[in-house]
Specification:
The structure is a single chain. The longest helix is centred in the first third of the chain and has 17 residues. The protein folds into 2 domains: 208 residues, 3-Layer(aba) Sandwich (Rossmann fold); 51 residues, N-terminal domain of TfIIb. The chain is globular. With 309 residues, the chain is of the alpha/beta class. Helices cover 30% and strands 22% of the residues. Strands 1, 2, 3, 4, 5, 8, 10, 11, 12, 13 and 14 form an 11-stranded mixed β-sheet that branches. A 3-stranded mixed β-sheet has the order 6-7-9, with helices on one face. A hairpin with a 2-residue loop joins strand 12 and strand 13.
């Protein structure tokens, strides 16, 4: 689709200025000192938060919704569905969900899951103004904050205007426009901090033209390794981020202590090549030490094999 290609080109040209990256780093250093436990980043994609202890994403092999960039695998990573998180209750002290909710069919499920697995967290999404200035066909919701409540309004169809997209794409090439963007961050981005409970409201449309929206595809588990298919980021920025993570933010992560079945939330047993649920007997594959905790990837075992799990 032409609109998606324009936006991908725009995102590929986009670079956060140094002062913004430095400000973000300082903020996350302070956060990591305040938070003793683990920090989760769902939808981490190619650009995980500096202080994230555990990262997760669903569309690892298909980068269509992140400008075809490769997933960053420099720390403990799990293939997961944001609407069915594969973690035990309250195992994370803090969680990030950046640029996630607007992509989902059912963001309500994700918000309830975040409250279940995390004590507090941060949510960020493009504002409605930003969506209308240069929206993409895989964003399904307008997100805003009213008082202390997160409000999500469903789109009937993607808000796409090719001429507007071309104009905004050209603006992104200008340094002065990017400076305006960063100095008026709240105009383009919605940021929401929460603790214990997320106050939210969903405004659903009766008729939604789902065929107008595009979506990345999971792609299944193949004989090729995930690491091999995705590759490793070798840019200076990626290497620097990995160095900062190892030196400043790295924490011990034991998947056996945090993982749970994404379907029944039961306890799991981890082996070298699988994660087995003790309750519903589903078996999830593990590739290159990356658990594939998706319902569609699981194999349902016979109850007669329960003693093996």
């Amino acid at each position: 689709m032409a609109s998606a290609k324009i936006m991908q080109n725009k995102e590929m040209r986009y670079r956060m200025p140094f002062f913004m990256r430095l400000k973000k780093l300082i903020k996350e250093v302070k956060l990591s000192r305040q938070v003793e436990g683990l920090i989760l980043d769902i939808g981490s994609g190619h650009n995980p938060h500096y202080c994230a202890s555990v990262c997760g994403d669903k569309y690892v092999l298909d980068g269509m919704e992140r400008a075809n960039r490769k997933v960053n695998l420099d720390r403990p990573f799990i293939v997961l569905d944001a609407e069915k998180l594969p973690f035990r209750d309250r195992v994370f002290d803090y969680s990030f969900a950046s640029h996630v909710l607007e992509h989902l069919d059912n963001p309500e499920a994700c918000l309830r899951e975040l409250q279940r697995i995390s004590k507090r967290g941060h949510i960020s999404c493009p504002s409605e103004f930003s969506e209308k200035l240069g929206g993409v066909p895989y964003h399904k919701w307008y997100v805003s904050v009213v008082g202390n409540k997160l409000v999500l309004k469903q789109k009937k169809k993607p808000f796409l205007d090719i001429s507007l997209l071309k104009g905004s794409s050209r603006l992104w090439e200008r340094k002065d426009f990017r400076n305006v963007y960063h100095r008026n961050w709240n105009l383009f981005m919605v940021e929401f901090e929460w603790e214990r409970r997320i106050e939210f409201c969903l405004e659903r449309e009766r008729k939604v033209d789902k065929e107008m929206f595009v979506c990345a595809k999971w792609g299944g588990v193949t004989t090729d390794s995930i690491d091999g298919r995705v590759g490793k980021q070798r840019t200076i920025k990626a290497k620097l981020k990995k160095y900062l993570y190892v030196m400043c933010f790295k924490k011990k992560v034991d998947f056996g202590e945090i993982l749970a079945c994404p379907v029944c939330k039961g306890e799991v047993r981890i082996t070298k090549d699988s994660v087995k649920c003790r309750q519903c007997l589903r078996v999830y594959p593990v590739k290159d030490n990356i658990p594939i905790m998706l319902e569609e990837a699981a194999v349902e075992k016979s109850p007669f094999l329960k003693d093996e799990s």
